[in-house]
Amino acid sequence: MGFPPISSLSFILFLFHFHSTISSSHFCAPHQSLSLLQFKESFSINSSASWNCHHPKTESWKEGTDCCLWDGVTCDLKTGHVTGLDLACSMLYGTLHSNSTLFSLHHLQKLHLSDNDFNFSHISSRFGQFSNLTLLNLNFSVFAGQVPSEITHLSKLVSLDLSDNDDLSLEPICFNKIVRNLTNLRELDLECVNMSLVAPNSLMNLSSSLSSLSLQYCGLQGKFPGNIFLLPNLESLDLSYNEGLTGSFPSSNLSNVLSDLSLSNTRISVYLENNLISNLKSLEYMFLRNCNIIRSDLTLLGNLTNLTYLDLSNNNFSSQIPSSFGNLVNLSYLDLSNNQLVGPIHSQLNTLSNLRNLYLSNNLFNGTIPSFLFALPSLQSLDLHNNNFIGNISEIQHDSLRFLDLSNNHLLGPIPSSIFKQENLTTLILASNSKLTGEISSSICKLRFLRVLDLSNNSLSGSIPLCLGSNMLLVLHLGMNNLQGTIPLTFSKDNSLEYLNLNGNELEGKIPPSIINCTILEVIDLGNNKIEDTFPSFLERLSELQILVLKSNKLQGFVKGPTAYNSFSKLRIFDISHNNFSGPLPTGYFNSLEAMMASDQNMIYMNATNYSSYAYSIEMTWKGVEIEFTKIRNTIRVLDLSNNNFTGEIPKVMGKLKGLQQLNLSHNSLTGHIQSSLGNLTNLESLDLSSNLLTGRIPTQLGGLTFLAILNLSHNQLEGPIPSGEQFNTFDASSFEGNLGLCGSQVLKKCYGDEAPSLSPSSFDEGDDSTLFGEGFGWKAVIVGYGCGFVFGVAMGYVVFRTKKPAWFLRMVEDKWNLQSKKTKKNVGRYVARRN
Ligand SMILES: *[C@@H]1O[C@H](CO)[C@@H](O)[C@H](O)[C@H]1NC(C)=O
Ligand SMILES: *[C@@H]1O[C@H](CO)[C@@H](O)[C@H](O)[C@H]1NC(C)=O
Ligand SMILES: *[C@@H]1O[C@H](CO)[C@@H](O)[C@H](O)[C@H]1NC(C)=O
Ligand SMILES: *[C@@H]1O[C@H](CO)[C@@H](O)[C@H](O)[C@H]1NC(C)=O
Ligand SMILES: *[C@@H]1O[C@H](CO)[C@@H](O)[C@H](O)[C@H]1NC(C)=O
Ligand SMILES: *[C@@H]1O[C@H](CO)[C@@H](O)[C@H](O)[C@H]1NC(C)=O
Ligand SMILES: *[C@@H]1O[C@H](CO)[C@@H](O)[C@H](O)[C@H]1NC(C)=O
Ligand SMILES: *[C@@H]1O[C@H](CO)[C@@H](O)[C@H](O)[C@H]1NC(C)=O
Ligand SMILES: *[C@@H]1O[C@H](CO)[C@@H](O)[C@H](O)[C@H]1NC(C)=O
Ligand SMILES: *[C@@H]1O[C@H](CO)[C@@H](O)[C@H](O)[C@H]1NC(C)=O
Ligand SMILES: *[C@@H]1O[C@H](CO)[C@@H](O)[C@H](O)[C@H]1NC(C)=O
Ligand SMILES: *[C@@H]1O[C@H](CO)[C@@H](O)[C@H](O)[C@H]1NC(C)=O
């Protein structure tokens, strides 16, 4: 039976309603239905297979119905051939094999499979058999392996998108054939496809019909052919994140329809001069982040009045913002961060009423923050962190803000109440302004979408608003303020908090037991308060906890535990120093501190898991020196039980904690011998057992601790020879003073001879610190005999100290991530987190 000649919409609707009764009038040939159904069956529907959208189209495909009416299927109405298949975001999960029935749909002209999970399938050479294909989109679908050369048979292709897969590569021969044979191409997107072997010169032969070329993150290297830019129809060119690309961008003869240009993170020279500017008048998107910009006259950019996105971040611009920027009235996104721009911001940006994202962080701007910035009607993201802004924060005139970071300036006064009217605010960071005063208004409870709240390092007073335990916060940092009262937070079930820092306030009362409702909590820092409680052993049930700092409070009693299997198994920093704990050392816990028994291979900074651009920071003591670590490497492992009244012996099991870099048991009442098993702690850089009641000899095994930079065994009752060994010979008398009968060259006392002459404690003044740590470390430190340990720590890169210009590198919000980041499925966790 032939196909009905009618192709009107009403007839299709008619069919749709009555197809079951007139099953013989299918448009769709049975073999096509079968192929499609088998294709459907070869995958599972899996909600984590699609990220950006979710349309499980194949679910509507039913045997016995007309496949031309199925979701995502298009047929030629005359022939009934399936000519289009659009299964983007269809949640398909599984391998796309070469024997797939997909390849029997010979007549396909458009095939769209983006945003599924084909589980590292290779792209089958059979794709080359779709001889009439004009569109092939395999974007973001977890394909891997080499792009088959048969792709080049698809000479009718107008649009080819293989971007954002996890592990695809393109051989030079194949790419050259694509360039030569696909003469109808208008769009070519190979973002994230590994093309590191392809010579940039081969791009010269690209079809002159090309209107869009995206080669982000392709690993291209070498000199880029200037001619590429002369493609007459080119509207969009993205070469960003090919760090090895050199050459220069032509200033003339450019396509006059170019509207989107991205050269970020390449070494292609860009001459910002009249010629170039007059050729770029139609530009709407310009991304020149971290570029090789030469003769940089920012004023000229004011002529590109059609610009909506402008990214000039991470360059060396050092002027003021030119007044010509006031002409860029279409701008919705302006990123000038990480330059050396100076001066107060006058009215240059006053006219930019479409601005949604403004990033000016890490510059040298000064003066007050102009109030017109807070009156921009569409502003959603404002980042001014790390500048020299002074004065009060003005009231915000509208309520569109989602992201606000004013940290590391010199702002003062109260937090304006209008901030709490920004109903969509997700991130509020006002940290490190020192002089923000007043109370944290309970209006903050109205911010239902707040994920990150960081008001640390200010002079805020009053109590902590109750609601902060019950909203959606991932990060709560109120440390280093003058907050008073109890910790009133009642953490509700399914709390998403990952980071809780209340260090350095005047908080009293007990540690709220409801913290255990925060099941994904990774950091608790309640140090330097006036908390009166016993050891909160219920915290051991927080299986993700990595950092627990309770030091300098009024905690007392025995540290008993564990009560559960795997207690504190992920803990890498455990600091309960400077409290009144007593009784034996918590030997039971030492047995379950698994993270301290291992060491990480990959050094990464510890960031919030679900907001990965937020780097964790904590306060730590390094023998009398209080430091805020603004970034923490995951390799750091610290156990500090000092300045309590622990009694009894050091248990042998401590030798299991092989990952430890710092162990501090000083200023307790420990007795017995130093366990030779401590010689197994081969990663130790700092060992402090001073001011205890330890007796006996120093185990020779300690001589094998080759990383040890700091050793303090002073003020015990040790005797006998100090072990020899390269490392031990570097310690001076201060490491051993105040013991009964130690002998050795370090204490200038021959063994079997008389007692060593007593030495006065060594001390370093602040001048010494600055030479030890170099310029820029503005913190005040009084170090007693521990100087080189810091240097060692810095050199090993475990931590980054708070500097005069503190490194508070909160990196950015959704738009930025969308536009600039490598988007593959492996990376997508972060991607999604930032979109929230
Ligand atoms: C769903 O997909 C994810 C990856 O996207 C995979 O890890 C998981 O095993 C899949 N689940 C099922 C039931 O196939
Ligand atoms: C297709 O090939 C794969 C692997 O080669 C095999 O596991 C599968 O059974 C085949 N499917 C069909 C329908 O032949
Ligand atoms: C490809 O298109 C041509 C011209 O439209 C047509 O004649 C031919 O049958 C098509 N081939 C297939 C396999 O659909
Ligand atoms: C180029 O395309 C034609 C079809 O137009 C095809 O026959 C030929 O094999 C292709 N050449 C290469 C090198 O792929
Ligand atoms: C830029 O604009 C200024 C003033 O509007 C004009 O004098 C100048 O010629 C323009 N330059 C270019 C390259 O268009
Ligand atoms: C700027 O945009 C407007 C509106 O889209 C358009 O009419 C005009 O041609 C553009 N200017 C240039 C120089 O491309
Ligand atoms: C801003 O800094 C410049 C030096 O870069 C200085 O000359 C100027 O006085 C400062 N202005 C204000 C308002 O602090
Ligand atoms: C808050 O976000 C919602 C959803 O995106 C939007 O509809 C609403 O207009 C936003 N509110 C404001 C004040 O911008
Ligand atoms: C955990 O949260 C629930 C409900 O939000 C609450 O009833 C419970 O008391 C909390 N747990 C603790 C230990 O406070
Ligand atoms: C430490 O504990 C011991 C034994 O419980 C006790 O005798 C001693 O007084 C305590 N020392 C301090 C400073 O509290
Ligand atoms: C210390 O290491 C040695 C040799 O590897 C081993 O025999 C011993 O059991 C270890 N001691 C502890 C407490 O881990
Ligand atoms: C962690 O945060 C730091 C600083 O904010 C940032 O530079 C880094 O890229 C982040 N790391 C990850 C894995 O996102």
From TrEMBL:
Q: Which family does it belong to?
A: Belongs to the RLP family.
Q: In this protein, which residues make up the domain named Leucine-rich repeat and WD repeat-containing protein 1 LRR?
A: 656-750
Question: What protein name applies here?
Answer: Leucine-rich repeat-containing N-terminal plant-type domain-containing protein
> Where does this protein chiefly localize?
membrane
Query: What span is annotated as the signal peptide, if there is one?
Result: 1-23
Q: Which residues cross the membrane?
A: 777-801
Q: Reply yes or no: does the keyword Hydrolase apply.
A: no
User: Pfam families under this entry?
Assistant: LRR_1, LRR_4, LRR_8, LRR_LRWD1, LRRNT_2
Q: Where is the Leucine-rich repeat-containing N-terminal plant-type domain?
A: 30-76
Specify the protein's topology with respect to the membrane: Single-pass type I membrane protein
Show the InterPro entries listed in the entry.
Leu-rich_rpt (IPR001611), Leu-rich_rpt_4 (IPR025875), Leu-rich_rpt_typical-subtyp (IPR003591), LRR_dom_sf (IPR032675), LRR_LRWD1_dom (IPR056363), LRR_N_plant-typ (IPR013210), RLP23-like (IPR046956)
Keyword annotations of the record: Cell membrane, Glycoprotein, Leucine-rich repeat, Membrane, Receptor, Repeat, Signal, Transmembrane, Transmembrane helix
- Compartments, as annotated in UniProt: Cell membrane
Q: Which GO terms describe its cellular component?
A: plasma membrane
